[in-house]
Amino acid sequence: LQQLHLLHLQLKEVLEALDRGPKQVRAKQQFVAQRAAELEGQREKQKKLKVSLDQANLQLKSNESKLDQLKGKLNAANSNKEYEVFTAQIEADTMAKSVLEDEILGMLDKLDESKGLVTAAEKNLESAKADEAKMTADVSAAEAGLKAKVADLQEKIRQSESVIPGEIQAQFRRMVAQNGADAFAEVDGDVCTGCYVGLPPQTFVELKTGKVLFCKSCGRLMYLRPVDAA
After folding, report:
1. Mind listing the pLDDT tens digit for each residue in 57-112?
2. Within a 10 A sphere around the Cβ of 98, how many other Cβ atoms?
3. Domains of the chain, with CATH numbers?
C-alpha cells in the first residue's frame, strides 16, 4: 500500500505539472494583453497631445495674423483715441500670444516625453511577447514527456492495485476518484496521519496482520509506517 500511495503521489505531481503549464501560458498571454493595452494607452495620449499641439499652432497663426492686422490699423489711425484703442488691443494680444507660445513649448516637452513612453511601452510589449513565446515552447516541449509519465504511472498503479481485496475495490476506487493520493494515510504509531485520530487497539492489530482497512474517522485507506522509516 505504501508503494501504491507513492505512485499516486507521483501521479498527482505530474498531473499538476501538466495543468500548471497551460496556466503559465495563459498568465503570459494576459501579461502580453496588459502590455498591449498600456502601449495603446500611451499612443492614444500621444495622439491627443499632437491634436492639441496642432490646434495651438493654428491658434498662434491666427493670433499673429490678427496682430498684423491691428498693427496695420494702428498705422492708419486717424485719431489719438483710435491709436490708444489699437495699442491696447495689440498689447493684450501680444500677451496672449506669449502665453500661448509658452503653452506650445510645454506641449512640445510633453510630446517628447510621450515619445519616450511609447518607445518604452513598445519594448515592454516585445519583451512580454518573447516571454510568452518561450513559455509556450517550453510547455509544449515538456507536454509529451509528462503525458508519457502519466501513462506509465497509471499502468504501474493498475498493477499495484492487485493488493486491494476485491470486496473493497469499489469503495477504494471511489475514494481515489474523489481524493487521488489523499485517499491514503500512513499510520504512525497508532495514529492515522490523515486525520490524526488514534486507532483502537484491535484496528492496529488487524493492520499488523496485513488486513486492508479504511480509517473510520476520515475514510482513508491506511497502511503501517515501515519499521525502518519510524
Report:
1. 999 999 999 999 999 999 888 899 999 999 999 999 999 999 999 999 999 999 99
2. 11
3. 2-161 (1.10.287.1490), 166-229 (no CATH)
Q: Which residue has the cell 498689447?
A: 91
How many Cα atoms occupy the beta-carbon half-sphere of 228 within 13 Å? 0
Global confidence as pTM: 0.67
Report whether 18 contacts 146 (CB < 8 A): yes
In the chain, which residue ranges form alpha helices assigned H by DSSP?
2-75, 80-160, 169-179, 201-208
First and final C-alpha spacing in the chain: 17
Q: What does the alpha-carbon distance between residue 186 and residue 169 come to, in Å, rounded to a whole number? A: 19
**Nearest-angstrom CA–CA distance, 66 and 63:** 5
Contact, 31 vs 125, CB < 8 A? no
Which three cell numbers mark 39?
A: 502601449
Alpha carbon distance 187, 220 (integer Å) = 11
CA 22 – CA 168 distance, rounded (Å)? 37
Amino acid at position 53, single letter? L
Report the alpha-carbon distance of residue 121 to residue 157 in Å, rounded: 51
> What one-letter code names the amino acid at 125?
L
